[in-house]
Amino acid sequence: MTSSTGGLGCDTIEQRISGFDWLQAAEDLDAYGYTVLKGLLSPRECKLLIELYDRDEIFRNRVVMQRHGFGRGEYKYFGYPLGSLIGELRTALYPHLAPVTNRWNQALRIDMRYPLVLADFLALCHAAGQSRPTPLLLRYGQDDYNCLHQDVYGEHTFPLQATILLSRPGHDYTGGEFVLTEQRPRMQSRAEVVPLQLGDAVIFAGRHRPIPGKRGFYRVNMRHGVSRIRTGHRYAAGIIFHDAL
């Protein structure tokens, strides 16, 4: 898989995101179910997001994973209005991903076609009662981990999502690899460990994706998680495009 590299010298998040090789990213998503955008955020931007974690007033909910059997660690969902950086990332990434998801739905004979503008898709979510924002910050300490899971919050779900690593592997923490699994029919699960560096984003299939077979395309289920943190603390930002019930 070839990771895409953009330019931190670009003036805005939207310009920076547009500078990635989205044709290559789409090929990666088709072939592997994920793609990596190297250096999407600067070290300063990662630090600014980490510093938000203790500002409870900007979040709508805090989840302690161990209480729900999700793993160990915790995360917080942002409330509306989203902060400028998270909001810009969500808005700017979406138009590059909607064509991929529409092509996937066509391959799987799913009727849903996603609007090419995030605001139009969120209007569909809100009309269905899904009005709670889903972008989040995650924090892990030593021996914390995130079980393999899918992020599904209602009738309207967007097939792709993003996770941005905000900590430095090997310096701020050890362990804590981002893991994807793929379950093909009548086959054992296949795991993929995605190496990330500070500021890298992984975009991945959150629920399922199409795979070509002898009789056309078939659906494979996808799950994602984080392996055990061995030392230190690991922070990440999650960008989910559909809102929750």
TrEMBL record:
Matches recorded under Pfam families: Oxygenase-NA
Q: Which UniProt keywords apply?
A: Iron, Metal-binding, Oxidoreductase
Record GO terms (molecular function): metal ion binding; oxidoreductase activity
Q: Does the keyword Mitochondrion apply?
A: no
Q: Where is the Fe2OG dioxygenase domain?
A: 131-244
Concerning InterPro entries, the annotation shows:
DUF2086, Oxoglu/Fe-dep_dioxygenase_dom
Q: Which family does it belong to?
A: Belongs to the iron/ascorbate-dependent oxidoreductase family.
Please state what the protein is called.
Answer: Proline hydroxylase
Origin organism lineage: Bacteria, Pseudomonadati, Pseudomonadota, Gammaproteobacteria, Pseudomonadales
